[in-house]
Amino acid sequence: MAQHNDTFRDFGLDIRLIRALDHQGLEHPTDIQQEAMPVVMAGFDLLASSKTGSGKTLAYLLPALQRLMKSRALSKRDPRALILAPTRELARQVYVQLRSLCGSHFNIALLLGGENFNDQLKALRRQPDVIVATPGRLANHLNARSLMLNGLELLILDEADRMLDLGFAPELERIHQAADHRRRQTLMFSATLDHAETNAMAAKLLNAPKRVAIGEAHAEHKDIEQRFMLGDHLDHKQALLDHLLANETYQQAIIFTATRADTERLAERLQQQELATAALHGDMSQAERNRIMDAFAKGQYKLLITTDVASRGLDLLQVSLVINFDMPKQPEEYVHRIGRTGRAGASGVAISLVGPRDWDAFKRVEAFLQRNISFSYIEGLQGKFKGLRPVRKAQSKPGNKTPAPYKGKKGKGPAKPATPKRPAGFIGGEGLGSADGTAPLKRKKAKPEQE
Ligand code: AMP
């Protein structure tokens, strides 16, 4: 990019935007803002990747608001800009940033799934200039004909890859169809541009887009120290967690679990230890989720136990520790989870506990980050599990899908062979009972978290 703007003033932004940025102490654009803003301001469609916490929200909000301030509306009745985000938390975060930039200059509506439809109808009757929404609810409003998108000037998809992962492709197409005209400018943000579905959707929605790739998601996040620890089973992971919470230095921490049931169970356990802990998951009402998020943001809780529902859109500067009690299924999700710490240049620590059930997910993260990950240990809490070796096709017997045990590399400490009674491939094993043969730990089978 030939142009280099040192400060936000150099972009020729409207003075009201500059004042709002000054007020927030923001002066110098981040890389993604530097690259994306001129492209958007020149009127191009944009497909951009940027790592979490890079300032991507302002990278689209500023040029979008500039366009709305400088041009006349195509339609008096229809919204001029629509911003879609995968989760309610992220949408809310975008809405807050938008408000802080334009005050009452524009009429803005926030339309989230799980909230009162009639209240939203009332908000739509006031003919908002800008709508921030989750895709499902926006599509519901289109179906109910409570809004039209013929006059839409800007369609912005934040974390498009995640929306597609959550199965929102039909809603995105529906929204695109409702606003399909030549004067629409479309911006699509994704954690990574190597996401086949994102590229396919981009081909449908974007018109000759410019591509901007800043710090693709697998790039090292220099402000976050990442550590990995092996865990044998649920009890062992809990012992590791207790130790970490007692010994790490942090103001607030977020702990991610695989299922809603685990979130509740772990939160209860930590509450019993008199740690100020809240659980947050998608089974809760939106009002309850908002209450917990506000209380956590105000520091009323030290620990937040949650599923992936909270991995995006939380902008909590006091969070300096993230623990993956379970590894996320998708490596992109790992990047988003750890991105809850190390925000805006602050430093953070992300610790992942890797048990037999996490092994495949762990290997995907390792491949995604493009580096060999080594494990750290806590004195006195070393477990037996040393990893799993991939199954070679020729060796695998029908019906035996479990990978063979990894015996450990030379010089990496003792690695015990699998106990003969246990299924091949497992050393330890959550939910199967602890390695010493004590009673199985009951773990409710639960749906993975989804919006
Ligand atoms: P985002 O990637 O949009 O989630 O932004 C992450 C954080 O960076 C937010 O707390 C923003 O307020 C902050 N931020 C965004 N742009 C800048 C900037 N140019 N300078 C300093 N902080 C910023």
What does this structure look like?
It is a single chain. The protein has 14 helices and 15 strands. It is an alpha/beta fold and 451 residues long. The chain folds into 2 domains: 8-214, Rossmann fold (3-Layer(aba) Sandwich); 224-369, Rossmann fold (3-Layer(aba) Sandwich). The strands form 3 sheets. The chain has a 7-stranded parallel β-sheet with strand order 3-4-2-5-6-1-7, sandwiched between helices. It has a 6-stranded parallel β-sheet with strand order 8-13-12-9-11-10, with helices on both faces. The structure holds adenosine monophosphate (AMP). Adenosine monophosphate binds at residues 26, 28-30, 33, 53-58, 315, 343-344.
Strand content: 15-25%
Q: What's the helix-strand series?
A: HHEHEHEHEHEHHEHEEHEHEHEEHEHEE
Strand line-up of the largest beta sheet? 3-4-2-5-6-1-7
Overall, the morphology is globular
- State the CATH superfamily name of the largest domain: P-loop containing nucleotide triphosphate hydrolases
Number of helices in the DSSP assignment: 14
Largest sheet: 7 strands, parallel
Distance between the termini: 37 Å
- Unreliable stretches, pLDDT < 50, 5 or more residues? 393-451
Q: Which secondary-structure class do the elements indicate?
A: alpha/beta
In CATH terms, what is the fold-level topology of the largest domain?
Answer: Rossmann fold
- The total beta strand count reads 15
Please state the CA-atom Rg, rounded to the nearest Å.
Answer: 24 Å
